[in-house]
Amino acid sequence: MKLKFFTLFFFSAAITLSFSCRKAELLQPEPSKVIQLSISGNTEVDLEYLYKDSVIADTKTGTTNSINIKTLLTVKDQNTTLKVRKKGTAEILLTKNITATPFDQSISIFYDGNKVYNNSITLAIKSYALSGELEFLLDGNLFTSGTGAINKVSSILIDKGTTREITIRKKGETAILLKKVIESTTARQNIGFFFDGTNIVDNVKLDPPANPANMMITAKFETTFPIQFKGVDVDLVFYTRPSSAANTVVGTKVIPEIRFTLPKDGSLNSIELPALPGPNYIYSFDIVEKGTNNYPYNAGTPLIINGYTLKPNEGRVTSAFATDGFNFQAGKSKLFVITDARTSVAASKTIYVSGGKLTDLSQYFQ
User: Is the per-residue pLDDT at 179 higher than 90?
Assistant: First the structure.
């Protein structure tokens, strides 16, 4: 009996000892794991990255201000954090948890010097200001400006699921000329417009002609005779003529008649011009009051010179299209600012009004 009791006690002690050893083994800490952390984004100020209270990397602002860091980190538990602060300060801008899995982990940081964002989009501004300097504001804060041909690409910081607002104004003024809402879901967004010094024409698009044999023209009209101009919509009535013909030669009116209406407010309009009769021909045009064959001017100087007579142009003078190098290009789309001009012929004491300076802005919207 004593032997059985001793044997039972021995086995019980052995089993207890065995469980104790296994439990002790389970209580041992798990080994550390190594992960690869990638940090990307953009910043306007120098940043430092802290892990376990030590600086493991930094970002110095330069020409691109981009963040591009890749580093290996040892992770022992699930409560490890990465902290981001302004370089040389104790201010923590962002805290991110770092886990033991997966091996590849990434963080995006976009910092404008005031706020950290989790996303950014690319904004392309391709526009033309005929006069004056324009300012571009993001949520009311100036971020860029430009005049003449404006071709800028900017990184706009934005939180996912939100919007921001771009406003445009003339420098030195508070009136808003244009507003644009920036979405977080579209990686690349565009702003394109034409500014004539007073108003903005938004969403300028140079679409190709429906007929590839034609040429698409988008244009606005500006008079150089504001005192005599009646302030009415005008029609450009088109003629064709040999490019070598003198200005005294009457052009051939296009039949059926082509009238291209350009509003008095300076807004843009478009028309498709058919192919010319031959390679050595050009287009000329008369400027008349919309729906009539009358000049849209009141008589008087400086339009009329004393002793001269104002006569219909009839496609004679081609200053806008010949002097400034207008060439018909099938399948192309062009944007012009067309002004008027006065041509005097001393031999006949005659004045003709035709197209004047032609400014080709096509390249800024293609």
Answer: yes
